[in-house]
Amino acid sequence: MGTEVTTESNGIEKQSIPLLPLRDVVVFPHTVIPLFIGRKSSVNAITQAMEADKNVFLVTQKDETIEEPNNEDLHKVGTLATILQLLKLPDGTIKVLVEGIKRAKIEEFVDLKEHTEVILSDCTLGFEDELKSLLTLKSTLKLFLVSVP
User: Fold this and answer.
1) Neighbours of 2 (CB within 10 A)
2) Which residues 6+ apart lie within 8 Å of 47 measured at CB?
3) For the chain, which residues make up each domain, given as ranges?
4) How far apart are CA 61 and CA 41, in angstroms?
5) Which end of the chain is more exposed for a tag (fewer CB within 10 A), N or C?
6) pLDDT in tens, 105-142
């Protein structure tokens, strides 16, 4: 209707990025958030990311009760992020501080022995008609201004 999701390759094409499934949180681009990592496959993904370029792909699970999600249990759109800080805790878990960079879509899963990596494409929202979107924005702003005392 008004918006459509389009994908294009731009800089992240054909690059394999470690995958980090998230249970109950969505990380957006340009946000910084601490994450506690406990699953063995997730710890391995973080370790691999730290050895490479510190990039990791964050994607939310469809069902947070699944302990070891497979590829079908994950959403296809997530956030490419950079690891800013890593702290190994005494119980074997890891606390990482990540910053979302940009939205991306999973094109292919690469299953390795100890963790999963993904090949991504850029994911941007595009408007079919720019004038239509500007009018929608204007009418929404008017409604907001009327509703706020």
Assistant:
1) 10
2) none
3) 3-147
4) 15
5) C
6) 999 999 998 999 999 998 876 656 677 778 888 889 88
> CA angle 100-105-110, nearest 5°?
100
Q: Is 138 helix (H, G, I), strand (E, B) or coil?
A: helix
54-88 pLDDT tens trace: 999 999 999 999 988 999 999 999 999 999 999 99
Structure tokens given for 29:
């681009």
Distance CA 23, CA 74 (A): 10
Architecture of domain 3-147: Roll (2.30)
Tell me, rounded to whole angstroms, the distance of Cα 133 from its chain centroid.
Answer: 26
* Total residue length of the chain: 149
Q: What are phi and psi of 9, to 5 degrees?
A: -90, 130
| Burial of 60 per CB tally in 10 Å (0-12, 13-18, 19+) | middle
